[in-house]
Design brief:
- The chain is mostly beta strands.
- The protein has one domain: Beta Barrel (Porin).
- Helices cover 6% and strands 56% of the residues.
- The protein is built from 3 helices and 23 strands.
- Strands 3-4-5-6-7-8-9-10-11-14-15-16-19-21-22-23 form a 16-stranded antiparallel beta barrel. It has a 3-stranded antiparallel beta sheet with strand order 12-13-20. Strands 17-18 form a two-stranded antiparallel sheet.
- Strand 1 and strand 2 form a beta hairpin.
- The protein is globular, with a radius of gyration of 22 Å.
């Protein structure tokens, strides 16, 4: 209940300030913007503050191998994400905070960045994105498909606590950081992860872009599986199936390493993305290794002529801003594959399907800069060992408000 009252408290406090009368300042002039969220900053640029958030309401319907219950059809209506976000700067220090209102409430990001060396050399402390992979580095608000691809999900680094050195120019973007391997309140050990990424843009002019990158992550900790959901996420019961390799109950690997190659292009209203991933979990105490590799290809076309924005700072695609009163329309197709057959053949390893491939077709309608409606069709095929079905279909939809 307390979590649900947070947005109401913020709105009440803001309303009280609005009714208070004239706003005065004893320092620099204040500039207030209300487009895309509430933002206030001083005219000299020393202080900035912006509050925003995102609400994502999803509907999923899936059958066949995608559902854990053999021969059944699953469906769900649930909030995929609900976040309150705040960011800004105080002279040479930036800050960012994001809080999840779903999943009983949790911190998503909470960090500060030293800005004194300029955009080419930034130092961020706290809970943050590690920035591994093109698709995963981009915001969930502006991924083209509702869910990220199989390999991007399998090798997701998540948001962790650590220190990251990063920067960007028009030509390159880089990051290298040391982090706690996972956010886990029940884990008292300080297992570490080292993650780095380098991107070069040989072409970066207006709406034309060529993006090439490579990333690597090495992580200590306890790992019992490697895999991903079949293109669909269930709601609270998480009924969507996975393709994965996992150790038998109670067994754990103690190290995980993975790397990727990424390529993308922005050609006016057409955008292209592709990534390849490869990684393994090293078994502790002479256990066999778990291994997986995968890739995806994605192509999108904004029918109404807009171009998908791109952020040099994080080297990832961003929002679509509609030009006309009727919004912007986008169509896309994606093929992705994840293979865990590289895992050692051993009675200690359980393979829930050795290989999975999905095809995702979708339509996105950006009604305005804040509201997006997405509909995806997903067809999945796999060689599941524990089920009589080897394929399945899903229809997913999302209503998103981002501000």
């Amino acid at each position: 209940m307390k979590v649900k009252l947070i947005p109401l408290a913020i709105a009440t406090a803001f309303a009280a300030q609005v009714q208070a009368g004239t706003v005065t300042s004893d320092g620099a002039d204040i500039i207030i913007k209300t487009k895309g969220g509430f933002e206030a900053k001083t005219a000299d640029g020393d202080y900035e503050f912006k509050i925003g958030g995102r609400i994502q309401l999803d509907y999923n319907s899936y059958d066949g191998v995608i559902n854990k219950e053999e021969g059944e059809t699953g469906s769900d209506l649930f909030f995929r994400r609900g976040r309150i976000e705040m960011k800004g700067k105080i002279k040479d220090w930036g800050y960012e905070a994001s809080y999840n209102l779903t999943d009983s409430g949790s911190i998503d990001q909470l960090n500060t960045t030293y800005l004194g060396w300029g955009k080419t050399a930034l130092l961020t402390f706290g809970q943050q994105k590690e920035n591994f992979g093109l698709e995963d580095t981009g915001s969930s608000k502006w991924t083209t498909a509702i869910e990220r691809s199989l390999p991007a999900s399998a090798f997701d680094t998540g948001n962790t606590v650590g220190i990251k050195f990063h920067g960007a120019t028009d030509l390159i973007t880089y990051n290298l950081g040391v982090f706690k391997s996972a956010i886990d309140a029940d884990d008292n050990s300080l297992d570490t992860a080292v993650t780095g990424r380098f991107v070069i843009r040989p072409v970066n002019t207006g709406d034309t872009l060529v993006h090439l990158g490579v990333g690597y992550s090495m992580r200590d900790g306890e790992f019992d599986e490697i895999g991903a959901r079949l293109g669909v996420r269930g709601g609270e019961d998480k009924t969507a199936n996975k393709v994965k390799a996992e150790y038998n109950s109670g067994l754990m690997g103690d190290e995980m390493k993975f790397w990727n190659l990424e390529a993308a292009a922005n050609l006016g209203s057409v955008h292209l993305m592709a990534e390849y991933f490869d990684g393994e979990v090293t078994g502790a105490s002479n256990l066999p290794d778990l291994a997986a590799d995968g890739y995806y290809f994605q192509a999108g076309w904004i029918v109404t002529g807009e171009s998908r924005k791109y952020k040099n700072g994080i080297a990832a695609f961003d929002s679509v801003k509609p030009k006309g009163a009727n919004g912007a329309w986008e169509v896309f197709a994606r093929y992705d594959s994840l293979d865990v057959t590289g895992s050692d053949s051993s009675p200690l390893i359980d393979l829930t399907g050795e290989e999975a491939d999905t095809i995702t077709l979708g339509v996105n309608w950006y009604m305005n800069s804040a509201v997006k409606i997405a509909v995806n069709y997903v067809h999945a095929e796999t060689d599941v060992e524990k089920s009589g079905e080897d394929d399945g279909d899903a229809l997913t939809a999302r209503l998103q408000i981002a501000f």
